[in-house]
Amino acid sequence: IVNCRYVRGVGAVQGGAVVVSFTDVTHLEQANQMRRDFVANVSHELRTPLTALMGFIETLRGPAKDDAGARERFLEIMDGEASRMNRLVGDLLSLNRVESEERVRPKEELDLTAQITSTIHSIRPLAQDAGVRLNLEAPDAPVLVMGDADQLRQVFTNLIENAIKYGGSGRRVDIKLIEMERDVAVRGPSARVQVIDHGPGIDPVHLPRLTERFYRADSHRSRELGGTGLGLAIVKHIVNRHRGRLRVESELGQGTTFTVILPR
Ligand code: ADP
């Protein structure tokens, strides 16, 4: 009882004596609390764009009814808010899927060099718009791992998009693929994928919590850039499923490096 935060007791009278048995329900209580926090967070995240949409509908029906210019402007904003809700629902579904598949080991063999090259190819237009140069360093030969192609694409996409979004415009993002023969992180041969930006970096107080759902180091910037706060939580579950490791190192004013370590 001494080490439990929550206990449940059941008492009974047996042969003239009172017998009470206690059960440690700390884990159950913590799980319930997490579920309540999650539902509260989701409701809050959905309500913000929803309230904005309802406000604009009201205005379009009333004061802005005959103002064509205002109508166009408001529809543009409403479009943005609806997209935000759509992204959030998409990320919630992804999170749900990756969490439920976390115990199932991926069975396909895939070439990380090809996978990363093609991921970078699809992100390049976004990088160009932000004035960021994507620079890949990888071995010429295939680097084979057991992995889920769609999920690993999502991991690299999320990390590279974050590096573009938060790494400061007009800079370079380096993506490195390194093979290691003996990697203590996974106790055997590994493939390390590093996504390195040269942006403002992340304050060390935030680092341990970055993969929590809805945790944002810079809430204002994340929302402004359309972030859902779920990207790194999704990354963490996918990396866990691959029995890999996710590391982050950051120095203020210097930049941030996310490293995904996958067993080969
Ligand atoms: P979001 O949708 O907000 O981008 P993520 O889960 O992908 O959510 O990231 C969580 C938070 O981590 C972000 O809100 C941001 O504050 C911080 N972050 C992630 N990647 C970087 C980076 N490369 N540089 C600086 N901050 C970052």
TrEMBL record:
EC code? 2.7.13.3
Q: Which residues form the signal peptide?
A: none
Q: Which UniProt keywords apply?
A: ATP-binding, Cell membrane, Kinase, Membrane, Nucleotide-binding, Phosphoprotein, Transferase, Two-component regulatory system
Biological process per Gene Ontology, one example term: cellular response to phosphate starvation
Any GO MF annotation of the entry: ATP binding
Tell me a GO cellular component: plasma membrane
Domain (Histidine kinase): residue spans on this chain: 41-264
Predominant place of localization = membrane
Protein localization: Cell membrane
* Domain of life, per lineage: Bacteria
Reaction(s) catalysed by this chain, per the record, are: ATP + protein L-histidine = ADP + protein N-phospho-L-histidine
Q: What is this protein called?
A: histidine kinase
Q: Which organism is it from?
A: Falsiruegeria mediterranea M17
- Gene label: phoR
Coverage span on the entire protein = 85 to 348 of 348
